[in-house]
From TrEMBL:
<dbReference type="Pfam" id="PF02994">
    <property type="entry name" value="Transposase_22"/>
</dbReference>
<dbReference type="InterPro" id="IPR043636">
    <property type="entry name" value="L1_RRM_dom"/>
</dbReference>
<protein>
    <recommendedName>
        <fullName>L1 transposable element RRM domain-containing protein</fullName>
    </recommendedName>
</protein>
<feature type="domain" description="L1 transposable element RRM">
    <location>
        <begin position="53"/>
        <end position="142"/>
    </location>
</feature>
<dbReference type="InterPro" id="IPR004244">
    <property type="entry name" value="Transposase_22"/>
</dbReference>
């Protein structure tokens, strides 16, 4: 009876060890794959951002206000509002509404994307536009960089934080995917919405932490992958007439085993593991 039980147990442990080895290898391969995907996604977003560096977006222009030529409309707007110096060529290469169906009369109008030949011209226009209030039909226009979709999502996560700061009259700036808050003690830059939110909460603001952004997020997937693995690989080896098994134990399991051992129902615990060095006839009972 005992030899058969020991043999079956050894076979089961061999199979489990094989599955654990495969699972460990698969886990490592998946983790590496997620890291590579994250790296490629970041490179792709960087390339797209660089391709947009000469672009800017104009928000709030009513649909149809541009007439038959968006380029001519933008050219006239820049000169009328003196966003470029007199006699300076704007060198606009392209100008069009953002892609998508035309919205209804009461909906938010599509933004206008403007591509300049030179980066410095675009920067001059933006800098001048941010220093004044520009209106069309008594409605303000907004000027900003042409960000990628990924960057727009990251910037959008600061929305509640910015609202809370505006209510308190605290000045802030949002360079790219960061947030610079001008506290009384001096300006402070925060590199993520979570970091900024926790600082506001520490200062007594009522702000909820932003939800995880949708789409590909390698960090979140890696966390899910690790939390879904409740065990770690263990070392097993069989010897003639005995099977030695080392099991990594959680804190709760160790506590239970210590209680059982005090009642004579288990072997002594050594650190974070137990060693079963002998299987005798009591296993069959």
């Amino acid at each position: 009876m005992v030899p058969n039980t020991a043999k079956k147990l050894e076979e089961a442990e061999t199979r489990v060890a094989g599955l654990e080895s495969w699972s460990t290898a698969a886990y490592g391969a998946l983790k590496q794959s997620l890291k590579e995907q994250k790296k490629l996604a970041e490179k792709l977003d960087d390339l797209e951002s660089r391709s947009r560096r000469n672009n800017l977006r104009i928000y709030g222009v009513p649909e149809g206000e541009e007439g038959n030529s968006v380029i001519n409309f933008v050219e006239n707007l820049l000169r009328t509002e003196k966003l470029v110096s007199d006699g300076t060529s704007t060198q606009i290469q392209r100008a069009h509404r953002s892609l998508g169906p035309k919205p209804g009369a009461d909906a938010v109008p599509r933004s206008i994307v403007v591509c300049f030949l030179e980066f410095k011209t675009k920067e001059t226009v933006l800098r001048n536009a941010w220093q004044k209030k520009i209106l069309i039909k008594d409605k303000p226009l907004g000027f900003d960089h042409d960000y990628t979709a990924a960057v727009v999502q990251q910037r959008r996560a600061y929305k509640d934080i910015k609202s809370a700061l505006k209510q308190k009259g605290i000045r802030f700036q949002s360079p790219f995917t960061k947030l610079r808050i001008h506290w009384d003690s001096g300006p402070q830059v925060y590199h993520s919405p979570v970091e900024a939110t926790r600082e506001l909460q520490r200062r007594g603001f009522t702000v909820e932490e932003p939800r995880e952004r949708e789409g590909f997020n390698a960090f979140a997937l890696l966390d899910q992958l690790e939390s879904a693995s409740p065990w770690q690989p263990v070392h097993r080896r069989s010897e003639s007439g005995a099977i030695q098994r080392t099991i990594l134990l959680s804190t709760e399991k160790k506590r239970n085993l210590k209680e059982n051992h005090s009642q004579g129902r288990t072997t002594p615990i050594n650190g974070q593991a137990i060693d079963v060095t002998r299987i005798d006839a009591s296993m069959g009972s």
